[in-house]
Amino acid sequence: MGLVVQKYGGSSVADAEGIKRVAKRIVDAKKNGHQVVVVVSAMGDTTDELIDLAEQVSPIPAGREFDMLLTAGERISMALLAMAIKNLGHEAQSFTGSQAGVITDSVHNKARIIDVTPGRIRTSVDEGNIAIVAGFQGVSQDKKDITTLGRGGSDTTAVALAAALDADVCEIYTDVDGVFTADPRVVKKARKIDWISFEDMLELASSGSKVLLHRCVEYARRYNIPIHVRSSFSGLQGTWVSNEPIQQGDQKVEQAIISGVAHDTSEAKITVVGVPDKPGEAAVIFRAIANAEINIDMVVQNVSAASTGLTDISFTLPKTEGRKAIDALEKAKTAIGFESLRYDDQIGKISLVGAGMKTNPGVTAGFFEALSDAGVNIELISTSEIRISVVTRADDVNEAVRAVHSAFGLDSDSDEAVVYGGTGR
Ligand code: ADP
Ligand code: ASP
Ligand code: MG
């Protein structure tokens, strides 16, 4: 029996009862002969509550202090979980990200893992302990400051530790039975996926399916760590995310043409109005945004009006970066020479994902027809080889997701999509 890494999300450890339930599951894995390393998130909505608190004290909190605050959430759950396991008669030790050897760059609030040196974790499990590691946090290589990996970052901690410890599998325990063809909170008839390739999962995750974080999937693909996403509330098999299809009976699970529909309401749209239509303008705009360390998503440039020689450039970005982006553009106003800026955070994005798109004509047409039948107006469009995304009004998103899900025959016959916990926040 080898080593397993299990990650429990916030909804799985939302209260004392949840922590005790999870402790039993962990002990069962240990009793089955595995060495067990557990990565745990903050309890319930603790991280959101800490963010709210910080914003009451300071509208733009300093990155270093913000990270110090947020990592407190995972410290609480890791210590409580270790206590609950000891109470069941098993040895457990908790470790902060820094103690576990999670080394990051120094970009506060969205640090990247650059190395994992899990010596203490290895020693702890070799001595017979269950090691509990605080997710979502690390320590910066240069300044030795505490960092966080961005929202949902515990998924990445789990996969990074699994890679560094050469684990057999990384199990991600959450509040639904696996990865579904759409968010089960929005589509009751969403279908559980038995196996999905890293490629399609990466695209779903970066399009907003927060059941797995895209950086975690990226990491798993790079080190070829199979992920098993499953519920901590049921004993069901979940979804395997890996390179090679899993075996079911004497057959391999087939790659679906369409893996699923993702949606995202965490982005905003900025329109730079009245930009001179000449070479180099877009370069200056996006250099200003890049210098502010902001990642953007979609970009469109309108045709310029012949009479004025001016055009508009729109792009989407995380809402949390909206203010920073506006400030950066205002500062570069003379260099760019635009007329005004428009900020719109009432948008949503819907994406259809599937490797089969490459070889099946008509997917794009079917997608637009479904949106049109649902009366949804499209504001921006972007595509990759295996994804098509549109931006709409935020109010239209749920309806649009359901319409596209049905139109592509993804609805299941039974209402199998159970949501066991969490607030969906
Ligand atoms: P955790 O606290 O365990 O990390 P998250 O809230 O981050 O849980 O992720 C689980 C949630 O992801 C589910 O409750 C569900 O609402 C949402 N979700 C979005 N898209 C999907 C999908 N395609 N399949 C399953 N869950 C999804
Ligand atoms: N607690 C952090 C968050 O809510 C990290 C995580 O749960 O993965 O984003
Ligand atoms: Mg999560």
From TrEMBL:
Q: Which family does it belong to?
A: Belongs to the aspartokinase family.
Give yes or no: UniProt keyword GTP-binding: no
| Alphabetic keyword roster | Amino-acid biosynthesis, ATP-binding, Diaminopimelate biosynthesis, Kinase, Lysine biosynthesis, Nucleotide-binding, Transferase
- This chain's source organism reads Streptomyces sporangiiformans
Binding site residues for substrate: T47, E74
Q: What is its EC number?
A: 2.7.2.4
The pathway it acts in is: Amino-acid biosynthesis; L-methionine biosynthesis via de novo pathway; L-homoserine from L-aspartate: step 1/3; Amino-acid biosynthesis; L-lysine biosynthesis via DAP pathway; (S)-tetrahydrodipicolinate from L-aspartate: step 1/4; Amino-acid biosynthesis; L-threonine biosynthesis; L-threonine from L-aspartate: step 1/5
Q: State where ATP binds.
A: K7, Y8, G9, G10, T174, D175, R185, K210, V211
The name this protein goes by in its record? Aspartokinase
Gene3D superfamilies found in the cross-reference section: Acetylglutamate kinase-like, VC0802-like
